[in-house]
Amino acid sequence: MSDSALPPHDPAAERLMQLIFTLRSNGVTDARVLAAMERVDRGAFVRGVFATRAYEDMPLPISCGQTISQPSVVGQMTQALNPQPRDKVLEVGTGSGYQAAILSLLCRRVYTVDRHRALVDEARAVFSALSLVNITAFAADGSFGLPDQAPFDRILVTAAAEDPPGPLLAQLKIGGIMVVPVGQSDTVQTLIKVTRLASGYDYEELRPVRFVPLVEGLGTE
Hints:
Distance between the termini: 56 Å
CATH class: Alpha Beta
Shape: globular
Low-confidence stretches: none
Number of domains: 1
Helix content: 25-40%
Largest sheet: 7 strands, mixed
CATH topology: Rossmann fold
Order of helices and strands: HHEEHEHEHEEHEEE
Number of strands: 9
Radius of gyration: 17 Å
């Protein structure tokens, strides 16, 4: 085969495949989760000077003093959440919209809420550009969930609370799962998987993490 007959070099595809390899190396083994993360281009959610680092396994700054989470953490949280095709999922902390986009490929409906209206507006624009029609994004105080849409099969919280928030636990269906970072400081946090049982709640510690704090009220942006 001559050089002219070789397929064109695609650096973005190579970086994406390297990211998928990194996810597998970090314990993300669920085939559905890996397929969703391969389909969702993280580069669509990273802007400005950090766009060239979109395929690296690291958190990156976004607007409003927030971050887009490290892909391996996104994968591990999604895997622990175990969303099913008919599930209705609540995400607290829209951020860039990357996590909601992945969830949208794994469940029936995603409701995502963030206290920063600017982030919600930016995420909605990306969802529209990617034709992700099963995501509804709200600018609201996510610490209280979305009572009007409850109960939820799954709840994912992408900001750290001192304890799993009571209003969110109450909006979880029996048999439902919530994944939430818990910790009293921004340096010592643990990812917790909560399963609601008919008799109460079962708590499982998953791994140490570091997230921005869960803050009540609306942002000023």
